[in-house]
């Protein structure tokens, strides 16, 4: 940490010159507010929070920070779950909240140009009004911003059919560590023109540049959807049913798995929905179908209903009204919060090839028994993306601090042995970085470090993230 | 060029030690054979051609070449159209043809693991046999290899619905310039675990590493398809019809545009197909629809037929038999060869947002008039990807060498002003590199160079490609 410069009053004065007085905050309350995201109860305060309002200001800011070797951590809506927006090395928290304009929705070309501070759901809704569809829909879509979604290559329920954020990004305006401004690509659907800097930036967690404009591709909005809830008497069987549905030739637009505890705990926070529960029900699948032909959706729903019988499904409930549908999805979107309210916890964002999900679930439980922790699992089963929530419950602090990381390592080793990896959609950030050598060999990490060094030689952009601590 | 080491007998002897005698060729005929691809009539001979048969041999070879600063240019099937496989700096041509195994088609997970020397169509067919679909289908799919497809992020007709090669690549085994071997990602559908080295490798034209294994994602094979041929009395109107079809909510699985000359010239080489021609017919759209419901395809075909009437379509022909369908697609796939046989030519792989296609076509013709060249245009209209074939005809050599490049620069400036870029699917390679500064600013090219330097400090991997010559 000591290679970085601590902010002095002189630095703050200069920042105020660059961004105006109202563009720089150093009061304790602001530093605390911008010193956390949604990751556990972690707080790492910056020394200043800045609010640039145009690309030239971001450029001037980075040029100055780079010359003075001051860390700069971009923050969006601070809804992240891997601690990626924490100012772990102090310095400047760069809030992109003034970059909140939808600059153009180009109906002719099914494209949109937006600033990174736009809230996901606001953008989704603006596109929908014009008959266009922006599919990525993280659980936090009502508050998270598109810039943050790009930084972590966010997913969401619809990824199972429509893919994650990076599939919709065509072109980016990016300010580099030295203040230079580039466009990474072009506004086209196919591109074989030089290195794919667009996809290098997406998922790089603010460590390679600051995104100031995004060009998205969009789809026509599907006119129909249908939501099903299927309770199962076995969580593993529910996971097996997921693969069977795809093998029947059906690609749902949502395929969510929730273990018993996940539903039970969440029902305490959501009161306008009734779902079958009871000791015999061990898991639910929440399934969405979409398209333009309502009859075809019902045909698929019937196929699913017939098929899940072989996997110990208790029933198949179809949401008949928009209100029922919304209530079920609200339930799913609240699971994370509910688990968080229940206990101190750690969330692992494991992802494996889809058909390996039953093995992953069984393995997580076995590792839990070995290390004495309880886990609540839920997530995007159609993508093989299982959120493993490890709850502290009555574990001792020592077990939590010392033993648990060994158990988490075992979970990740299992994930990798199944062809999977550490994070499907939350990113590595601060809390997963020391597990990176489980999935990548030394040569791979050396390449990633070399790219970081090439784009940000002084390491000012979001230091302390992604890369394992060197001494490990 | 003089920074590289020329091969001596001692080097060749060492290569033979590494790869066996039959793994190294230095005879004139081999050097000539591996000294060209399908780009114009260019020949740049290597000093040796090598044929490693496993990743360890590739690793040993690169380690040795790197230590001795010998250029290494990977070659696939040499069907490329941008000169990317030419040994412009001599050294070693690294043929991947012994890497021709389909290692696994994993039906449970809709994935496959293959070696890069497998021919595209062979892989496509092997997947199809198991009910699985690998969509990318470049015109040369009968001979091009998957490794080459990755190197240039190849497209093909089906990209309009299914996307290009990079959308199907989950994970890569890559040998780095220094001989280190890495896996870039994981075998998962979503991944937020470090930098996206997978997508950095795809499209990098063999300049960042040598791909030795590929993990693809696959789709269920659609059971039905339907091919339409639509002749138009105006090429620009045909281009306008393309956008109108998408706006009607139809996403065809093929949407190919062919100007009059492209069809007329190709008909000389394909004799088992009859298409309407004549002076009044200025262009054709070849349209494919696919899915699992034959009735739905006919419904969409009727919508298209009604819609194209407004754009001066002469007729709508539906291929009634598989033979007719195959003949039409064979015609389309042969256009490139036909143009090549007709005259000395240069092909530009322009790509713009789809709705800008009419403007691009008009602009290309205007620029042609200004500089005195004739162009034949065809390509993947649904993606905005227009192949502009400039034929030498009776242009003087001087006009061809000196004036034409200025005209091409104007075409690319037009492309960029429309939101497009230099290459949609052929890559930059050797022949487009000096146009790169039309689309990228200095800071962007500096980033690309820095990445190249970080991964290949001595610049041995496919030198002389992608980056503009420094003196320009």
UniProtKB/TrEMBL annotation, chains A, B:
Q: Which PROSITE patterns match?
A: FAD_PCMH
Q: InterPro entries in the record, alphabetically?
A: FAD-bd_oxidored_4_C, FAD-bd_PCMH, FAD-bd_PCMH-like_sf, FAD-bd_PCMH_sub1, FAD-bd_PCMH_sub2, FAD-linked_Oxase-like_C, FAD-linked_OxidoTrans_Type4, Oxid_FAD_bind_N
Say if the entry is tagged with keyword Oxidoreductase.
yes
Segments spanning the bilayer are none
All copies of the FAD-binding PCMH-type domain together span 42-221
Q: Which cofactors, by name?
A: FAD
The terms under GO molecular function for this entry are:
FAD binding; oxidoreductase activity
The organism encoding this protein is: Phaeocystidibacter marisrubri
> Which Pfam family is one of those matched by this entry?
FAD-oxidase_C
Recorded protein name is FAD-binding protein
Q: Which UniProt keywords apply?
A: FAD, Flavoprotein, Oxidoreductase
